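Notebook B, p. 112. Complex prediction, attempt 2.
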Amino acid sequence: MKFFIDSFDLCTENTDCIVVGVFKSCQLTSSANNLDQYSNGYISKLINQGDIDGKIGNNLLLYDIPNIIAKRILLIGCGDKNNFGAYSITKIIEKTIQMLNKRSIKNVIFSLTELNFCKNNIYWFIRKIISTIKKEFFKINTFFKKDIYLNSISFNIIDKNFFSSAQIALKHSLAIDLGLTAAKKLSNLPPNICNPLYLSLKSEKLSKKYKNNINVTTIDINQMKNLGMHAYLAVGQGSQNKPYMSVIQYSGKNIVNKKVIVLIGKGLTFDSGGISIKPSQNMHEMKYDMCGAAAVYGTLIMAAELNLPLNIIGVLAGCENMPGGSAFRPGDVLKTMSGKTVEVLNTDAEGRLVLCDVLKYIERFSPSIVIDIATLTGACVIALGHYATGLFSNNEDLVHDLEKASQQTNDKIWRLPLFEEYEKDINSNIADFSNVGNGKAGAITAACFLSKFTKKYHWAHLDIAGTAWESGINKGSTGRPVELLSQFLLNISNYTKY
Ligand code: BES
Ligand code: MN
Ligand code: ZN
């Protein structure tokens, strides 16, 4: 499946199908109007007959159109002209792809650029269309188990001044999609295949594929012991599958800004809860407790594909939380790598125990920014549902930049506070902290715990518990927040402020 940016004479182009838009109350877009005139009013005749009304997603496939060489024209309803936005684009593209693929149509021209809702910003228009097409393909392949017949989609760019922006958008979209798809596939694997060792082997493969830019170091339990990562180790000690931490170092060419950006992904390949075992009903979903690690993996693929001029270190914190004779217990007191001690009151609050040691470990890279991505708390799902990822941070500029990337990609995040009042909730009378709060504001007390280990750098924590996967009949990983992180990195590739 290939995408092209080009400019066509729609009437004389020999293709399987041309896709053009029709607005509500029968207003033709300029491409539709152009085809209408050439075909002696064939399209307007059908519209006047009431064959299509322009409601969003409503459509009509035409064959043997007078004076038109293309085999077919797909008229797609675009809804209200004055209310056209990202949401409309998603609906239109989803419907278009379904229609085309149902009929095994192979080569198409999308002549939709006049729908450009971002006021002449063709870049965002193409980005949005391609990401929607790619997501629809993924659905068709994985959920409907159908083949993709489409061979090529060409975008008809009427104004040649927009060519280069469209080309860049295409390039960015494909790289982001590669990362997003890799993250989804990795997250969807069952936990008997995707264990901590598997995660580390996947990481090592990146250094083969991108050998000029990526170096991978794998930290095993012996090295963790030497480093004093006893909180991380405790979480993994009940499992036959030993923990592995992968450190993926990416460095691009022509780096403007030498400072390091660290991305840390929680990689619990299965979280049974440990001795504080979870109820059995939805326990199978805890294979997705490594979605943070998968998102970091995918984001690094994107960076390597685009050769971003940055230094990025991705850490996949692979581990499995199991009950058993050698498992850690409620009541245990653990010495973290930072030297601070933690009283374990619940072995199911394991993510923060793994992450606190990684947050200490990465100090050695003197990072300018650290972002951890974790399916950390059920409480975050209660607070924000499945639409927005929870954001916590100790730096306003970083918040600003993440929010900007979030708005650009529609990969939604929402900031929650880290007021000092919450700190007393994780007090312990026998250790520096306890690993759980008092049952209230659980997403915040978890973030508050992490914040104890992030004083030395600008840090953000993304709690993706509600956004990383979908449950039910179409269950599967969403790949979030790969798009957010990719956009954030694309944006700072042009900055020098960190
Ligand atoms: N991985 C879970 C969080 C989670 C739960 C994500 C449900 C998505 C859906 C995490 O390790 C966990 O178990 N957290 C506990 C913390 C509690 C014991 C303080 C939780 O949220 O219940
Ligand atoms: Mn847990
Ligand atoms: Zn967990």
